[in-house]
Amino acid sequence: MARPPKTVFVCQSCGSTSPRWAGKCPGCEGWNTLVEESDTGPPPGSGLKKASKGRPITLESLKGTSREAPRLPTGLEELDRVTGGGLVPGSALLIGGEPGIGKSTLLLQLSAAIARNGGRSLYFSGEEAVTQVRLRAERLGLADAPVGLAAETHLSTILATMEAETDAHLIVIDSIQTLWSDALEAAPGTVSQVRAATQSLIRHAKRSGAALLLVGHVTKDGQIAGPKVVEHMVDTVLYFEGERGHPFRILRSVKNRFGPTDEIGVFEMATEGLRQVRNPSELFLGDRDASAPGTAVFAGIEGTRPLLVEIQALVAPSVLGTPRRAVVGWDTNRLSMVLAVLEARCGVSLAQCDVYLNVAGGLKITEPSADLAAAAALLSSFSGKPLPPETVYFGEISLSGAIRGAANTAGRLKESQKLGFSSAVMPAQGEIEPSAFALELDRISHLKMLAERVASCD
User: Fold this and answer.
1) Which residues, in sequence order, are CB contacts of 232 under 8 Å at separation 6+?
2) At residue 238, does pLDDT exceed 80?
3) How much is the pTM?
4) Which CATH number fits domain 77-278: 3.40.50.1360, 3.40.50.300, 3.90.25.10, 3.40.50.2000?
5) The domain 283-455: what is its CATH number?
């Protein structure tokens, strides 16, 4: 008599397994994430159905000749910047983003650009029909590009098609959560299906030399859905960020085995698709109202790119027992820290005020050097005095109120000078040659000095 198939409960967030159901995952402590799946063993094509005897291999030394990985230019400069110079043949990239942010538009433009440059692009859509993709291509003016298009979700069919297309340079899967294999008794999008599909596709990409680009759904927290092992399997992880109400889109690299991480590319959503923004500082500062209190220009660094962005603050008397603290584009914990330092070290108390902080343009800032610009905007709004419009701010605030130095100071100052700013409020720490810049450098060592300067503004 055949033994009934064994089932396990798999967490859809972290991929950990449990022999019985529980409301809380023992791995990631997420609630209601365990789903019953059949334990059918290793994924198809993994070669792990039975153990085989290994053989010794020859060990290499660290010393030796090496060459830079070859690159496949995409035709999109902003995407080449994020990936480190272009796509590496045989590499696997994972791109995530909220629904409707423009992932499919970007990948269709990428496929068309490579196809027009003589490459072979394959586009497998699991969420849209061929007619829908064609309508988007016509709207973007890409209908004449020789892109191989198919609407398919069966993993075996996709792999067979990829094997037949031996001259492919780029393979796009939109999205990985829609693929399924009949070798697994699990629904599409589950951990087992996603892991098996990713492993099979990456194996083909490494063998054939085609660049593989996978689209991943995101959770409510903004993280790519599915097991974290998928992010470890691929070579590059990209996030496509942006706000629905803003035309700007940020392509951010958080993992890259062939280039720098934390690099960004800036696009603008238009009727003809995504336009590349080669000088994002001008766009982020284009609609700035320099005469209003509570605005400060932050000279930041995103990856290797200097970027100037406006930080807006509004401080208003509160009628609530617990005043509100609302932040868009910055860390709420850092705002709380800056407010505490202002009260403890500078005698500026905002405890009875509602505080709102916003990074203009929908950009998300994670750099600690934005502390000084945020503090300047808060002090300006609290006092009702606008800051000098031609001044930029950058520097990290410590808990003692001291201003710590920032990395790549020269790049920040060069970008500020190029955009017409005449002065910079910056940390006193760090060696720099003032004569190299046509800027008035106001170097401060403590937050009290900034508060005094804001109080003396006309």
Assistant:
1) none
2) yes
3) 0.76
4) 3.40.50.300
5) 3.30.230.10
